[in-house]
Amino acid sequence: MGASLKKMKQQGQHVNQKDAKIKNLAKSVNFMPKLWKCPKCKREFAKTRQQHSCTIYDIDKHFAGKDYARKLFNFLVSEINKKVGKIKIESLPCCIHFVSNYTFGAAWALKDGIRIDFRLDHKIDTKKSYKVNHISANRYLYYLDIKNKKEIDSEFLTWIKEAYSQNAEG
Question: What is the pTM assigned to this prediction?
Answer without folding.
Answer: 0.70
